[in-house]
């Protein structure tokens, strides 16, 4: 499976789009606002010469309101820091990266809206006391596991909920019977292969960024992760076992071939904080300034953006189970369609939502574990 050729979130702004179903990630980004602001403030304060131009990249930007949210946060953080330091805001170059099949058209149309309305963040209109930076936006298609930018050209890199996706499915020596991701019944060799693929990808990512980010430059990376050391623990499968159950039911009803089910595995890895810290150390080009773990409760699936970019809950009639199923569908539909064909999509995601709804009582497990790490490029 070639991720670069066809992996993407559902495009457009319709009911099934990532744009309409990215409230969980949006809530996660909001929770990292303080970390992003601190990184920008440090970046400006630690520069011998206050930067005249600040170049940033959002890697795995997707399409929809979240794409603009990060840019808005950085714009406001730069404006605020400049004011505090008594300097004119630097000009900002904002590079929006994703895989080539990402819906960049929707991003560019939304950018126009942002430029017309003024940048906003976390629901507040631009604070008029700040001298707002002039911004230039570019779309950069390509995989962040390879080089995307010239040497030492970036001051700041952001990435949210993208780095848990692998560059490819690991080569598996054994069948991950009955599962679509790591679980308590996954063979040890499969679990090892997943970690090895993540290690290779994450180290490659850091190596590429170490060439592109200038000395003293900053990165804030947020990934879906886990708190525990065991990659086959409950945190890894509470979201995916119900999807495997939905597929298994369809196998039993003769709607999905067993061999197809057995050969379907998700190309993602939810790392632990220890794994991330060890890999950053192993690669050696960045220091960790801050690392935090937080939960994004499933309830956040229904957080939407209104015209003023404030977050609000919308009542669509869906319960949290179907809502989360829609959010997951917006992210993995192309993977499922590519493997099983489009005919099963409505059925499998409806069943998935029903199973998630049935598990509603397990409150502890109704959250996406997220890890944010803030890094500085060594001098
Ligand atoms: C869940 S979305 C996150 C989007 C956005 N950053 C957010 O927080 O809402 C993950 C995005 O990462 C992108 N992605 C995955 N692997 C990638 C890679 N190797 N290079 C660039 N983008 C990638 C996907 O195409 C997708 O748009």
From TrEMBL:
Top enzyme class: transferase
One annotated GO biological process: methylation
Superkingdom in the source lineage: Eukaryota
InterPro entries: MeTrfase_7, MeTrfase_capping, SAM-dependent_MTases_sf
Keyword terms, alphabetized: Magnesium, Metal-binding, Methyltransferase, Transferase
Molecular function, one GO term: S-adenosylmethionine-dependent methyltransferase activity
EC number: 2.1.1.-
Keyword ATP-binding recorded: no
TM stretches of this protein: none
SUPFAM superfamilies per the UniProt record, alphabetical: S-adenosyl-L-methionine-dependent methyltransferases
Signal sequence extent: none
Family: Belongs to the methyltransferase superfamily. Type-7 methyltransferase family.
Record's protein name: Methyltransferase
């Amino acid at each position: 499976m070639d991720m670069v050729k066809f992996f993407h979130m559902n495009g457009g702004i319709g009911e099934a789009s990532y744009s309409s179903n990215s409230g969980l990630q949006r809530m996660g980004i909001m929770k990292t606002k303080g970390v992003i602001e601190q990184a920008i403030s440090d970046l400006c304060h630690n520069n011998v010469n206050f930067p005249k131009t600040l170049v940033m990249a959002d890697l795995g930007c997707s399409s929809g309101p979240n794409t603009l949210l990060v840019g808005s946060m950085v714009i406001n953080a730069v404006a605020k820091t400049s004011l505090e330091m008594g300097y004119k805001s630097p000009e900002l170059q904002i590079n929006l990266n994703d895989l080539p099949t990402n819906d960049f058209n929707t991003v560019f149309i939304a950018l126009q809206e942002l430029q017309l309305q003024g940048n906003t963040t976390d629901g507040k209109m631009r604070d008029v006391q700040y001298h707002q930076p002039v911004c230039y936006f570019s779309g950069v298609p390509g995989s962040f596991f390879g080089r995307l930018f010239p040497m030492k050209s970036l001051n700041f890199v952001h990435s949210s909920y993208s780095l848990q996706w692998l560059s490819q499915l690991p080569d598996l020596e054994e069948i991950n019977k009955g599962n679509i991701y790591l679980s308590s019944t996954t063979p040890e060799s499969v679990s090892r292969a997943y970690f090895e693929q993540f290690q290779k990808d994450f180290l490659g990512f850091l190596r590429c960024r170490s060439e592109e980010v200038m000395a003293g430059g900053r990165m804030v990376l947020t990934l879906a992760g886990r708190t525990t050391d065991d990659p086959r623990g409950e945190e890894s499968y509470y979201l995916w076992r119900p999807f495997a159950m939905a597929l298994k039911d369809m196998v039993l009803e003769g709607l999905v071939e067993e061999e197809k089910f057995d050969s379907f595995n998700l190309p993602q890895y939810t790392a632990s904080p220890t794994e991330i810290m060890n890999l950053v150390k192993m690669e050696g080009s960045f220091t960790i300034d801050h690392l935090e773990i937080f939960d994004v409760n499933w309830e956040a699936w229904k957080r939407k953006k209104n015209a003023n970019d404030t977050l609000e809950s919308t009542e669509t009639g869906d319960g949290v189970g179907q809502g989360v199923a829609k959010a997951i569908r917006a992210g993995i539909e192309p993977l499922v369609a590519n493997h099983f064909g489009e005919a099963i999509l409505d059925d499998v995601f409806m069943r998935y939502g029903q199973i998630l709804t049935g598990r509603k009582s397990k409150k502890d497990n109704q959250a996406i574990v997220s890890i944010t790490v803030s890094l500085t490029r060594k001098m």
